[in-house]
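Re: export button greyed out
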Amino acid sequence: MFYRQVYQLVQQIPPGQVATYGQIAALLGNPRAARAVGWALHRLPDGKSDRVPWHRVINAQGRISTSCREHPACEQRRRLEAEGVRFDAMDRISLGEYRWEPPPAIWRKYL
DNA sequence: CTTATGACTTTCA
DNA sequence: CTGAAAGCCATAA
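Workaround output, generated via the alternate export path:
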């Protein structure tokens, strides 16, 4: 299952760092499946929302894309700031500084 | 199998 | 920098 791999991967994102949807998709072997990643997180079961750091996943622009009322953008931002992630004047995250670089053990796993 | 949807990405104006 | 349009993928009905 693609979305299960997404959850499993998102769980391994360390605090204080973020990953883009495209990055997640690429690690799973489908660089074009960013949308599917978004779908997976949108359909994230509430039971797993507490153990999956969904807030550490953002779009390629370093912005929060969620329009889900269950998990509002303001809450996602709040959680990220709580982990030390800084937003610039345009509510964007410096990907060059907070972008998560998956350890070799990860991409070797899904290769 | 076909159609529809979504927390995306890239490109162009 | 913002916004629009087209492209692409997995899942659901």
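The first strand of chain A starts at residue 19 and ends at 20. The button fix ships in the next patch.
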